[in-house]
Amino acid sequence: MDGLLRCSRYSFGPNRLHYCGPDANRELLGYIKSGAGDLGLETLMKAFKTLFPYLKFIAGANGIRDPFDNKVVEAYWIGNELLETIEKKNFYRHLLENHELKKRVGVKAFEEITDKIREGAVPHHSFHVFNIWKRTGHLEREHTLESMDNCRISWGKVEIIDGPSIIISTEPLVYSEGKIFLGTPINKKITRNLESDFDIEQLKIGDIVTTHWGVPCETITAFQVLTLKKYTLKHLKLANKTI
Fold it and tell me: Max alpha carbon distance in the chain (Å)?
């Protein structure tokens, strides 16, 4: 799967709920079903006003011309070595200028975000979900525990396959004593509704899948699980400093 199509699979969940991106969910689904991207899909993905600036920033910081390069897409949604090349001052400027976060979240909240950059925050999807309390996209409202759990990229092991439904074992977000953390694994039912020919439709018991807003996105390796969990825990730890 190329980076553009891979990115569309991660973006489908919030887009179908009208949370972010253009009002073109049928077109997006059509591309996913066909398993092929083109300039039309690229145009759709560039209309995601939070996502695309992050991809462009990660690519530029690593000397990569295509923001939809597979490694760039993986860096943002799952995590990889591209995130470790990001200079703190450049990440700060990106949030200040490209996302205009100081205007959107206020001076005090932006100062807290700046402190987190100093402490090691990187431009991973989990950073934005856990540490920028206002949901971006079409709904400018504060996150709840439930919305954060749905908005972050989760992962889970496939335990049961029942046609379009699968049961995965996954660690939910839990709030206790003023902190958020990953809880004891639970079984969660999700539906495969993308009807794509990619491997997400040929799942096997024991496979590990990522999910975003209740939609399974792709199967990932054990190493990718460790990487995704590392960045998730990093940004949860930073979030807990200002809860």
Answer: 50
Cβ proximity of 209 and 168 under 8 Å? yes
Query: Which 3 state secondary structure label does DSSP give 102?
Result: helix
Q: Answer yes or no: are the C-beta atoms of 130 and 14 closer than 8 Å.
A: no
Report how far residue 4's alpha carbon sits from residue 144's, in angstroms, rounded to the nearest whole number. 30
Question: 232: closest CA among 182, 190, 183?
Answer: 182
CA triple 220-203-198, angle to 5 deg:
75
Could you read off the pLDDT of 77-125 as tens digits, one per residue?
A: 999 999 999 999 999 999 999 999 999 999 999 999 999 999 999 999 9
Domains belonging to the chain, first-starting first, are 3-131 (no CATH), 153-239 (2.30.30.140)
Alpha carbon dihedral 15, 145, 71, 185, in 10-degree steps, equals -120
pTM over 0.85: yes
pLDDT in tens, 12-49: 999 988 888 998 888 888 888 878 888 999 999 999 99
* DSSP E strands, the chain: 154-162, 165-170, 173-176, 179-182, 186-191, 208-212, 215-219
Whether residue 159 contacts residue 16, with contact meaning beta carbons closer than 8 Å, is answered with no
Helix (H) / strand (E) element for 187: namely strand 186-191
